[in-house]
Write the structure tokens for this entry.
Amino acid sequence: MTTRARTTSPKLRAWWHNPPATPRVTLARQVSGRTLEREVGPAGVLTLAEAAAVLDRPVADVRRAIRTRFLPARRRQGQLVVTVRACYRFREEERADGESAMAAVARARQTGARPIPWARARRELGLE
């Protein structure tokens, strides 16, 4: 009996269309030497692997975002799917969170505040 090396999923690339007024994505999947492209509109559904390619992060992170309810998902025929609109909103929320964090750091630097080490914060909160 010969064993074959487990093959990985086909290569998958995704890019957003401009202008971003209506979130649309093009997915390019490479299957046996050919490139298959699929254009998906805002209400179109994506598998978790496709959503991971669209969000540019691992599938495990997409699953974690779904589990924590940051990224809404549905089951269609037993498979988890995510809409393009949900991915777009998730990206916008992530961008806004990043901008807020950068603004908070800038404010802290202007006031001369010093960060509290995690070990000290944990001790003061009684988490040790």
